[in-house]
Amino acid sequence: MCAALAPWRAEIGTLTSRTQQQMTAATTPAQAKENLTRLFRGAESASEQARAGVERAGVPDVDNGERVATSFVASLGAMRDAYGRARTGIEALATSPSAEFYTKVSAVVDKLNTEYQQSSLDTSRLDSEDLKRAFDEVPECR
C-alpha cells in the first residue's frame, strides 16, 4: 500500500509547488490556464495511479484490513475527482478579462483545497497498531 502512495505523494508535492508558483508567476491568462490545466491533469492521473495501486495491493493483513483498504481507495478516488473537477473548472474559464480570470482561478483552487481536505485520510486514526507503526516507520509511508 505504501509503495503505491510514495510516488503519488512526491508527484502531488511537486504539482502543488508548481501550482503555487503558477498562481504568483507573471504569466498571461492563457499561459496560466494551460499550465494549471496540465498540473491538475497530472495530479488527477497521479491520484488514479495511486488509487489503482492501493486497490491492487489488496487488503492488508491487519485488524479491519478491509475497512482500511476501502478507506484508502475511496479517499484517493475522491482526491482524483477533486483534481478532475479543478481541471475542468480551469478549462472552462475565459481568459479575458484577465482580472476576472484570476479571480475565478482562485475560486477553483479554493474549492479544490476544500475538497482535497474533505477527502484526505487521517492515518493517525488507524485502528491497527501494525499500520500505525508502518506509517510512522516505513520510508514509503512517510
Helices and strands in order, then pairings?
Blueprint lengths: L1 H23 L4 H29 L7 H27 L6 H22 L9 H9 L5
Helix pairs in contact: 1-2, 2-3, 3-4
Explain this structure.
By secondary structure, this protein is mainly α. The chain has a single domain (2-141), classed as Four Helix Bundle (Hemerythrin (Met), subunit A), CATH 1.20.120. 77% of the residues lie in helices and 0% in strands. It contains five helices and no strands. It is elongated. The relative contact order is 0.16. The mean pLDDT is 83.
Structural class: mainly alpha
Q: What does the largest sheet look like?
A: none
Number of strands: 0
β-strand amount: under 5%
Q: Find the CATH topology.
A: Four Helix Bundle (Hemerythrin (Met), subunit A)
CATH hierarchy class name: Mainly Alpha
Radius of gyration: 17 Å
CATH architecture: Up-down Bundle
Spell the H/E element sequence.
Answer: HHHHH
Unreliably modeled segments: none
Tell me the helix content.
Answer: over 70%
Please, how many domains? 1
Number of helices: 5
